[in-house]
């Protein structure tokens, strides 16, 4: 028999993995263009609603909807990027914050208008329900699935960024944009595609999150806070940083809620403020 | 302001402190609700309080360039401390106002040491985190603040022992307006002082100001503390005029709303926050039939439109039109 602390740890890790999938896209785009995108979780919410619609209305299997939610979020984000975001790349932080907060407000209202303010139910496939007994510890199958997906995403991102031509262009643009342009890298195109990928991952995260945290129109803001915490604690543009920060925040949030429920969300805000005061650029940040 | 004669620094500062006829007209217009809209005095009082809150954000955001997403923390501190003061000590309003201002200022001064070390994204995140922390503290300290039920048992004595806070909000509006005007005069003096000029210099170039003798961090600390004091006064006003304090007063929503008002009116202009708050509050009152989530749809559209087409807010747009018209 394993003591319950391992169960808490397991839930924390699964939650951290979810936060990682939700936030890694924002981390990369923030590091690349220094664009403060507070509408990131609106793309996650879009992915979530795509999954809910396809499963509940069109009767698709849950797993088949995941790629669709990825593509839907990616396409929407790239349209917005071309129409609105690109005009503000050189604008102040404040203008970027205002524009994207505005988009997040709009997403909340549109979601409430179409789907109502209730929590959306979702039916996961039978294979992902229940739990596996592991030395007397019940490990939720869905959480195991979540961890597997997140690890796959991490692996794909590390391989994609470290060993491909596209990845090399992204890294070059993050490190020194002007130099990258000088070498003939199309930084605008690199950014647009990275942005689409990041938002697509957010959409995937939104779909995966429904089972764990539910989905309602306020998702855009509720999880925005978590995502921003992960990104700023981890350091901009760092995948390893986002991963470590997502684990730290996920585990401390679950452990905090389990052992000292009266503190509520206090603990993660405290973790964030302390980490940022200690290292303003985040745990793995360069700048 | 184009001025043909060469200016001495003193002359420049003096020229800026001169009262424009439009300003006098504006302040006279604030008295109109007493005669024209006696049924809307409670709303007018709320507008005056929110306008003052927007002014306090303007000092750090519009002038010093410190973007804060957690300014409601100080509003909430003021609201709760004024409420608790009236509950456990006495209900005299002015002393409550001072206590709230002092507590908010103390907290502002403490956090200003953190704030002044950061800029850009970490700064936005720190202010957001501190604001959320304050909200969590107020929420979990149920024994003190009443948590999500709100603070019960606030009672405010009549002003000078004479003017009771009536149902129509006549006293409330007169009181809020008077405080707004007095604090506005102080803020106006501050902004047009060399200190205010230094703040604008820091906003434009953080690195160069220390080279000409204005330490950026020390200035940001002072400005942040002053803004916190004013925000605390606003919170106290709201508590005293409504006899209640709730978690809403310290929520992220309030921080976001005040940011929207300020940007709508025009940040970095003394009247920007005032005009923005008035428009925002009146519009919200008029559209109160709409469910809040749809009201925020229009706020979102408005934000996108302001950022895209009206970068300096309504006042910025107006002054651009006036400048163009004068040139012809």
Word description of this protein:
The complex is a heterodimer of chains A (287) and B (328). With 287 residues, chain A is mainly alpha-helical. Chain A has a single domain, classed as ABC transporter involved in vitamin B12 uptake, BtuC (Orthogonal Bundle), CATH 1.10.3470. Chain A has eleven helices and two strands. Chain A has helices at 4-33, 40-56, 62-83, 93-115, 141-163, 165-175, 177-182, 187-213, 219-234, 239-259, 266-278; strands spanning 131-134, 137-140. A two-stranded antiparallel ribbon of chain A has the order 1-2. In chain A, helix 5 (141-163) crosses helix 6. The N and C termini of chain A lie far apart (46 Å). With 328 residues, chain B is mostly helical. In chain B, helix 5 (72-88) runs parallel beside helix 7 (120-140), helix 10 (194-204) crosses helix 11 (216-242) and helix 12 crosses helix 13 (270-286). Chain B has a single domain, classed as ABC transporter involved in vitamin B12 uptake, BtuC. The interface between A and B is large, with 46 and 42 residues.
Write out key terms for the chains shown.
heterodimer, A: 287 residues, mainly alpha, ABC transporter involved in vitamin B12 uptake, BtuC, two-stranded antiparallel sheet, 2 strands, B: 328 residues, globular
CATH architecture of chain A: Orthogonal Bundle
> Which of globular, elongated, flat, extended, rod-shaped describes the shape of chain A?
globular
Main sheet of chain B, how many strands, which sense, barrel?
A: none
Helix/sheet category of chain B: mainly alpha
CATH topology of chain B: ABC transporter involved in vitamin B12 uptake, BtuC
What is the N-to-C order of secondary-structure elements of chain A (H for helix, E for strand)? Answer: HHHHEEHHHHHHH
Q: Count the helices of chain A. How many?
A: 11
As for the CATH topology of chain A, it is: ABC transporter involved in vitamin B12 uptake, BtuC
What is the subunit arrangement here? Answer: heterodimer
- Give start-end ranges of low-pLDDT stretches of chain B: none
Proportion in helices of chain B = over 70%
Major sheet details of chain A? 2 strands, antiparallel
The total of beta strands of chain A comes to 2
Strand coverage percent of chain B? under 5%
Low-confidence stretches of chain A: none
């Amino acid at each position: 028999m394993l003591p319950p602390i391992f169960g808490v740890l397991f839930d924390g890790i699964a939650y951290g993995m979810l936060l990682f999938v939700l936030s890694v896209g924002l981390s990369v785009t923030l590091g690349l263009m220094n664009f403060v995108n507070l509408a990131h979780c609106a793309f996650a919410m879009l992915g979530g609603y795509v999954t809910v619609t396809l499963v509940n209305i069109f009767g698709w299997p849950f797993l088949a909807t995941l790629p669709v939610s990825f593509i839907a979020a990616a396409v929407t984000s790239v349209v917005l990027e071309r129409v609105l975001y690109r005009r503000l790349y050189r604008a102040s932080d404040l203008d970027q914050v205002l524009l994207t907060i505005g988009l997040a407000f709009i997403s909340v209202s549109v979601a409430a208008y179409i789907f109502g303010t209730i929590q959306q139910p979702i039916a996961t496939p039978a294979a992902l329900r229940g739990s596996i007994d592991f030395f007397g510890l019940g490990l939720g199958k869905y959480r195991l699935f979540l961890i597997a997906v997140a690890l796959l995403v991490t692996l794909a991102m590390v391989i994609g960024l470290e060993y491909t031509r596209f990845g090399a262009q992204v890294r070059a643009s993050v490190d020194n944009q002007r130099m990258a342009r000088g070498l003939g890298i199309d930084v605008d195109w690199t950014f647009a595609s990275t942005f689409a990928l990041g938002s697509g991952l957010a959409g995937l995260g939104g779909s995966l999150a429904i089972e764990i945290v539910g989905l309602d129109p306020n998702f855009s803001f509720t999880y925005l806070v978590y995502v921003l915490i992960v990104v700023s604690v981890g350091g901009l543009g760092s995948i390893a940083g986002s991963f470590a920060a997502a684990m730290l925040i996920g585990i401390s949030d679950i452990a905090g809620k389990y052992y000292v429920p009266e503190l509520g969300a206090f603990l993660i805000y405290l973790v964030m403020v302390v980490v940022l005061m200690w290292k303003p650029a985040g745990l793995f940040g360069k700048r | 302001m184009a001025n043909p004669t060469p200016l001495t620094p003193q002359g420049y500062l003096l020229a800026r402190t001169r009262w424009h006829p439009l300003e006098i007209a504006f302040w006279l217009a604030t008295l109109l609700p007493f005669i024209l809209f006696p049924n809307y005095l409670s709303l007018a009082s709320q507008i005056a309080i929110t306008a003052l809150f927007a002014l306090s954000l303007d000092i750090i955001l519009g002038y010093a360039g410190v973007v804060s997403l957690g300014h409601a923390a100080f509003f909430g501190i003021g609201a709760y401390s004024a409420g608790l003061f009236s509950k456990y000590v006495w209900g005299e309003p002015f002393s409550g106002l001072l206590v709230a201002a002092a507590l908010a200022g103390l907290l502002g001064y403490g956090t200003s040491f953190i704030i002044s070390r950061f800029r850009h994204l970490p700064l936005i995140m720190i202010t957001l985190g501190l604001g959320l922390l304050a909200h969590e503290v107020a929420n979990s300290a149920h024994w003190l603040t009443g948590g999500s039920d709100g603070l019960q048992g606030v009672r405010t004595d009549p002003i000078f022992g004479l003017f009771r806070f009536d149902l129509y909000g006549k006293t409330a509006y007169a009181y809020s307006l008077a405080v707004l005007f007095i604090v506005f005069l102080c803020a106006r003096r501050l902004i047009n002082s060399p200190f205010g000029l230094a703040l604008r210099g820091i906003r434009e170039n953080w690195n160069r100001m220390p080279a000409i003798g204005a330490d950026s961090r020390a200035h940001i600390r002072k400005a942040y503390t002053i803004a916190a004091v004013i925000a605390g006064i606003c919170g106290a006003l709201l508590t005293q005029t409504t006899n209640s304090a709730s978690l809403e007063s310290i929520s992220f929503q309030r921080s976001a709303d005040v940011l929207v008002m300020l940007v709508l009116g025009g940040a970095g202009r003394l009247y920007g926050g005032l005009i923005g708050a008035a428009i925002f509050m009146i519009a919200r009152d008029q559209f109160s039939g709409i469910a809040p989530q749809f009201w925020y749809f229009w706020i979102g559209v408005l934000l996108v439109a302001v950022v895209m087409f009206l970068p300096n807010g309504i006042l910025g747009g107006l002054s651009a039109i006036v400048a163009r018209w004068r040139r012809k």
